[in-house]
Design a protein that fits this description.
Layout lengths: L11 E2 L8 E4 L16 E4 L6 E2 H9 L4 H12 L4 E4 L18 E4 L8 E2 L5 H7 L6 E7 L2 H7 L4 E6 L3 H9 L12 E5 L19 E5 L2 E4 H22 L2 E5 L6 H7 L9 E3 L6 H6 L3 E4 L3 H9 L3 E4 L2 H4 L22 E2 L4 H12 L3 H11 L11 H13 L1
Parallel strand pairs: 1-4, 2-3, 2-5, 5-6, 6-8, 8-9, 10-13, 10-15, 13-14, 15-16, 16-17
Antiparallel strand pairs: 7-11, 11-12
Length: 398
């Protein structure tokens, strides 16, 4: 994948950083953290790879603060920021930011993390290992659940808190009631996580030999990586017909062209409805279903934290021919390969057996399975009280 370099002139700006309590590191605007504006003054500090503020550069040079770290320190001082909150937890610079400032640095996990490497770089875990000699650290890492803590604690110094998904926590805070669908027919949503169509070579996942990911020096094509989605959808379509349930495919974006192209050729899915949604607004959509099935979608884990009945067919890499548990359910937490609401099956028959058993779970059986296993892989903090309290405390003593 070729990197497109933006002209430097388009990445230069000149303004005095706005004074704020909380500053978001990374991104051109305050995005995911906007919900905090009801309590705190928010600001934004883009990375030097996104936008360079010439005014801040001049001020940092006058104070003999050189390089990107001198620039970041100056920017934070000019904004009078009291807390840094990182929304993009895969931004490796974030784990070194604490060395250039005394301001607390909080990082929010906003997606399930694996060490799969994009074709143009390294995965997060490999990147952190590469800078381990620089002692990456944060003040607090707010994790989706225990798996991230187990994954990152050996590599990152700091406090770890299992607080769940920031966006989900805000959704639950304003959720007035449990969403219901219009009919009495049981509905199951198949949650998929396809990439942005504009970033997919050939604009299709069908028979696409282009390398999508690398694992252990082995290339994985788009076709191989996403082939399991078609298998699961075909089996799920068959099972739901037998049970007289409605099947709906839940996409990841407002544009479902890629999903339509893919699932229109999957046996049994020709007429299945595909529901798109804007980024960050999939919770209400998924919340309206009686049950959900996914392979490894972050939205699936988030809805599990909410208490929804979610089944995981966690076998993507094994189905692609790799002997790896990297993307297994709840990894790296040690769990059985198969459980009441997850499976590692790689054959249509095995997946079918799991789905029929999962969808037939009684409320009592689901409650027992949920309370036994869900807290080991996910968390929920309604209203983000842990993050908000941590910010309040740091502001009070600054």
């Amino acid at each position: 994948m070729k990197l497109i370099r933006r002209p430097l002139a388009k990445r230069l700006t000149w303004y005095t950083p706005e004074e704020c309590d909380v500053i978001q590191f990374g991104g051109r605007t305050v995005s995911g953290l906007a919900a905090l504006s009801d309590e705190f003054r928010l600001g934004n500090m883009p990375t030097v790879g996104e936008i360079v503020n010439v005014r801040v550069v001049v001020r940092s040079l006058l104070r003999r603060r050189y390089g990107r770290w001198g620039y970041y320190r100056q920017f934070l001082e000019d904004a009078h920021a009291k807390v840094v909150v990182v929304w993009h937890d895969t931004l490796v610079e974030s784990y070194l930011l604490a060395d250039c400032t005394d301001i607390p640095v909080f990082i929010i996990q906003n997606g399930i993390r694996h060490d799969l490497s994009p074709t143009s770089g390294k995965g997060l875990i490999s990147s952190l290992r590469a800078i381990k000699h620089l002692h990456p650290r944060v003040t607090t890492y707010f994790a989706l659940g225990p798996p991230a803590v187990e994954l990152l604690r050996p590599l990152v110094q700091g406090n770890f808190v299992c607080s769940g998904s920031f966006r989900l926590n805000e959704y639950v805070r304003v959720r007035s009631h449990h969403p219901q669908h219009a009919t009495d027919e049981k509905r199951v949503g198949f949650v998929v996580s396809f990439p942005n169509r504009a970033e997919v070579p050939l604009a299709t996942l069908h028979n696409n030999p282009t390398t999508f990911m690398r694992l252990d020096e082995r290339d994985i094509s788009y076709s191989d990586f996403y082939s399991i989605d078609g298998m699961v959808a075909a089996v799920l379509a068959d099972v739901t017909r037998e049970l007289d349930w409605e099947l709906v495919i839940i996409g990841k974006r407002s544009d479902n062209v890629l999903e339509t192209d893919y699932f229109s050729t999957v046996p049994g899915c020709e007429g299945v409805r595909i529901v798109p949604h804007d980024k960050g607004h999939g919770y209400a959509v998924a919340d309206s279903f009686d049950a959900l099935v996914t392979i490894d979608s972050t939205l699936g884990y988030e809805m599990l934290a909410l208490g929804k009945k979610v089944g995981f067919v966690s076998n993507r890499l094994m189905h692609a021919g790799l002997d790896s548990s990297e993307m297994g359910f709840g990894q790296p937490v040690q769990l059985p390969a198969d459980g009441p609401f997850w499976t590692s099956a790689t054959t249509p028959r095995g997946i079918r057996n799991f789905l029929r058993t999962f969808l037939a779970l009684s409320e009592d059986d689901w409650s027992l399975a949920y309370t036994t296993y869900a807290p080991r892989v996910t968390s929920c903090d309604i209203g983000n009280t842990l993050l908000r309290q941590a910010i309040r405390e740091k502001i009070a003593i600054s």
